[in-house]
Design goal:
heterodimer; A: alpha+beta; T-fold; 2 domains; 9-stranded mixed sheet; 8 helices; 33% helix; B: alpha+beta; mini-chromosome maintenance (MCM) complex, domain 2; 3-stranded antiparallel sheet; 7 strands; 20% helix; elongated
Chain lengths: 343, 134
C-alpha cells in the first residue's frame, strides 16, 4: 500500500505541468517573442526584461536609420580602413563567405536599391528604372552585374577595408538571426535551457519541452492564415522563412516583393513563393534564407547539402502550390499537404 | 435467392450502424484535417505595448472598436465576428493596417515604430497546436 502511494505521488509529480511564460514585443523592425519553460535562476519576467532590453540595444547598434549610428563607420571613402564595433564585425565575418558562396544572392550593399523600391511606402509603385540602375551602379560600379564583388574586406585584427565608395551597409536582413542566437545564449545563462525565441521570421528552439518536440508551422504563401505543413524539432535548432508574401504589392496581376535579385535589381520571378530552412543556428538561417529563395531548388539543394541545411521550397504553379525539399527536410517533416512539384 | 433458399442479396440501403460509422469517420477526418492544417481560430487577442500587456479584447460577438496608446500615439483595432484588424495606427508604413483581419491562434499584427504587437490567442493559452510559425 505504501509503495503504491509513493508510486502515485511520483506519477503526480511527473505529470505536473511545467510552467511557461510568454511575451511579445516590437524591436529591430519586427516582432520578437519568447516562451520560457520552467523556472530559472531569476524569475521568468526578469529574464524576459533582460532579453527585451538586449534587443533595444542591438536595435540601436544595427539600425541603418541613424546616419550617425555605429554602422555609419562603414559608409566611408573607398580604401578607408575603419574599426567597427566587434559585434558588427562578427556579423560581417559570417556574411562575406555567404555572399561569395551564394554568388551574390546575398548582398549587404543593397540599401539604396531597397529604398528605391520603397515597399514600405503607403502607396508603393514601380520605381523609375533609371533609379534602379543608379542603385546598382553605386553598389557594383555597373548596372549589369556579372560576378560577385565584396563591398569590404575584414582584416585579421578586426579592422575593415572599404572597397566601395560611400556605400551604406545594410545588416537588416542578417542581424536578427545573430541577435536571436545571443538572446538564446543569455536565456541559458539565466537558467532557462528550454525556450523558444522568435525575431521576425527567425525562430530558435533550445532544449526539449516536457510535452515533446517543438512543432512549427510552414505558412501557406497564398493564404497566410493557414499552414501547408508542420515540422517537429526534437531539441535545439533554428528555422526561418523567406517568402514573397511578407512585403509586396500587386500591380497588373504581378506581385512585386522584397526579395530583390541583385543581378537585375528587381524582385525575383523564379516561381518560388517561399523557402523555409532548418539550420544549426539562427545566424546561419538568416544568412541563407534569402539566397535559398533566389537560387531555388536547382542550385540551392547542392549548397544546402554542403552547408548541412534542410530546405523546403514552395513553388507556385498555375494549378496551385507544390513543394520541393532537400533529403534532410523529410527527417523533420511531421505533416504536410503539399504535392510534390513535377520534375 | 441463395442455395439454401434464404435471400442473402445485399441490402440496397445502408443499415443504421453503417450510417453511424460513415458519419463518425467523416467527422473524424474533417476534425483531424482542421486540427492539423487549418490551425485553430482564436477567441481573443492580447495587445502588447513595449513588452507589457496593454489589453485583451474578445474576437467573438459583434464588431467593436478599442484603442490603446502605443509609444507614437493611439492604436485602434476593430474586433468581432472571430477576427481582429487594425483600423488606425500612427506607424508611417501602415503595414499592420494593410495586413487586414487575422483570426488564427498565433497570428500577429505588428506596429514596430509604436512598439505595439497584437497576438491572437485561445482562452486556453497562446500556442494552439503549434509552438510558432516563422
Amino acid at each position: 500500500m505504501r509503495r503504491l502511494a509513493i508510486l502515485g505521488a511520483l506519477l503526480l509529480v511527473s505529470c505536473r505541468e511545467v510552467p511557461s511564460t510568454h511575451r511579445d514585443w516590437a524591436a529591430m523592425d519586427c516582432n520578437f517573442a519568447a516562451t520560457l519553460h520552467g523556472e530559472g535562476r531569476v524569475p521568468p519576467e526578469a529574464a524576459l526584461d533582460t532579453i527585451q532590453e538586449w534587443t533595444r540595444r542591438y536595435d540601436s547598434l544595427f539600425t541603418d536609420y541613424d546616419p550617425h549610428g555605429p554602422l555609419s563607420i562603414l559608409r566611408g571613402r573607398l580604401g578607408d580602413t575603419v574599426r567597427p564595433d566587434p559585434r558588427i564585425v562578427a556579423i560581417l565575418r559570417g556574411a562575406l563567405p555567404a555572399m561569395a558562396a551564394s554568388r551574390g544572392s546575398l548582398d549587404i550593399g543593397l540599401h539604396d536599391l531597397k529604398e528605391v523600391w520603397g515597399l514600405d511606402a503607403p502607396e508603393p509603385r514601380l520605381p523609375d528604372p533609371a533609379l534602379v540602375r543608379r542603385a546598382l551602379r553605386r553598389r557594383f560600379g555597373t548596372d549589369s552585374v556579372s560576378s560577385f564583388r565584396p563591398p569590404l574586406e575584414i582584416l585579421a585584427d578586426g579592422r575593415v577595408v572599404l572597397l566601395v565608395d560611400s556605400l551604406p551597409i545594410d545588416l537588416g536582413g542578417i542581424a536578427k538571426g545573430w541577435v536571436v542566437d545571443q538572446l538564446s545564449r543569455k536565456l541559458v545563462e539565466l537558467g532557462y535551457p528550454v525556450h523558444l525565441i522568435q525575431g521576425g521570421g527567425e525562430i530558435a528552439t533550445h532544449g526539449r519541452k516536457a510535452k515533446g518536440a517543438w512543432k512549427l508551422g510552414v505558412k501557406n504563401p497564398r493564404a497566410t492564415d493557414q499552414v501547408v505543413g508542420t515540422i517537429a524539432l526534437e531539441s535545439t535548432a533554428a528555422v526561418s522563412t523567406s517568402g514573397d508574401y511578407e512585403r509586396f504589392f500587386v500591380l497588373d496581376g504581378v506581385r512585386y516583393h522584397h526579395l530583390l535579385e541583385p543581378s537585375t535589381g528587381r524582385p525575383s520571378r523564379n516561381g518560388i513563393a517561399s523557402a523555409t530552412l532548418r539550420c544549426a543556428t539562427s545566424a546561419q538561417c538568416d544568412l541563407w534564407s534569402k539566397p535559398m529563395f533566389l537560387l531555388g531548388p536547382g542550385e540551392g539543394t547542392r549548397l544546402a547539402d554542403s552547408l548541412g541545411i534542410d530546405v523546403l521550397w514552395v513553388r507556385e504553379l498555375p494549378g496551385g502550390l507544390c513543394g520541393e525539399q532537400t533529403t534532410g527536410w523529410k527527417t523533420i517533416l511531421w505533416r504536410d499537404t503539399l504535392a510534390a512539384c513535377p520534375r | 435467392m441463395g442455395p439454401d433458399g434464404s435471400d442473402r442479396s445485399p441490402n440496397r440501403f445502408l443499415r443504421p450502424l453503417d450510417v453511424v460509422i460513415v458519419v463518425v469517420v467523416t467527422a473524424l477526418g474533417i476534425w483531424s484535417t482542421a486540427r492539423l492544417f487549418g490551425a485553430p481560430s482564436g477567441t481573443r487577442a492580447v495587445i502588447w505595448v513595449d513588452g507589457r500587456r496593454a489589453a485583451w479584447v474578445p474576437l467573438g460577438g459583434e464588431t467593436s472598436v478599442d484603442s490603446v496608446r502605443g509609444t507614437l500615439g493611439a492604436f485602434v483595432v476593430e474586433h468581432g465576428h472571430g477576427r481582429i484588424r487594425v483600423l488606425r495606427s500612427p506607424c508611417p508604413g501602415k503595414i499592420c493596417q494593410k495586413q487586414g483581419g487575422v483570426h488564427r491562434v498565433g497570428d500577429k499584427l505588428v506596429c514596430v515604430p509604436s512598439h505595439v504587437v497584437v497576438v491572437v490567442e485561445s482562452e486556453s493559452g497562446t500556442e494552439g497546436d503549434l509552438d510558432a510559425v516563422p
